[in-house]
Amino acid sequence: MKIKSKKIPSALYLVSFLLFIYLSWLSLRPVEIVAVHQDGEFSDVLVKNFPFTNRGKINWWLKNQDILKEKYHIPNPGDNGFFSVTFWLFGDGYKKEGKYDRRCFEDMNTPINCIDKNKVFSIDKSRNMGISFSTGDQTYRMKENGKIVKYN
What's the pLDDT at 25? Predict the structure, then answer.
């Protein structure tokens, strides 16, 4: 009669536990705002350590919007109340335009003024839609009562 080893399940538990600790650490790191670029009512925010989940992104915005307004003057609504704030992962930093799919910022007087496009979140306000949140795979709208719902 063979006795099965219990080392494999123990190793699996250990790997699962370590993965849980690592993911928890990733989710608890504070968001770092590297730079803010503005063009009228359009704002681009370069970030590191942005939340992973859709709920985390929206909650982060709701919690920090007053600080962002005070410190970075975003959002910056136009005369009609419209604004757009886009959050981009900063990744490997600023680069030359060279590559096809890069976002370049005209407010920088240097040829190294672009980032690889890796949009993680955006907030828009318009007359017809009100405030909407885009997480890449889903769009949410804030109703007049403050409730946030998925938008199809």
Answer: 61
- Helices marked H in the chain: 7-28, 54-72
List the domain boundaries for the chain. 30-151
Instruction: Report whether 125 contacts 77 (CB < 8 A).
Output: yes
Residues in the chain: 152
Q: Are 116 and 107 in contact (CB under 8 A)?
A: no
d(CA 5, CA 73) in angstroms, rounded, equals: 61
Spatial CB neighbours of 128, under 8 Å, sequence gap ≥ 6: none
- Category of 99 on φ-ψ map: left (φ > 0), alpha (ψ -120 to 50) or beta: beta
pLDDT for position 5: 52
**What residue type is assigned to position 77 of the chain?**
P
> What are the tokens at 151?
């938008």
Mean pLDDT of 98-125: 91
Tell me the pTM.
0.81
pLDDT tens readout for residues 12-58: 777 777 777 766 666 667 999 999 999 999 999 999 999 999 999 99
From the list 81, 79, 85, the residue with the least C-alpha distance to 128 is: 81
Q: Which residues contact 30 (CB under 8 A, 6 or more apart)?
A: 49
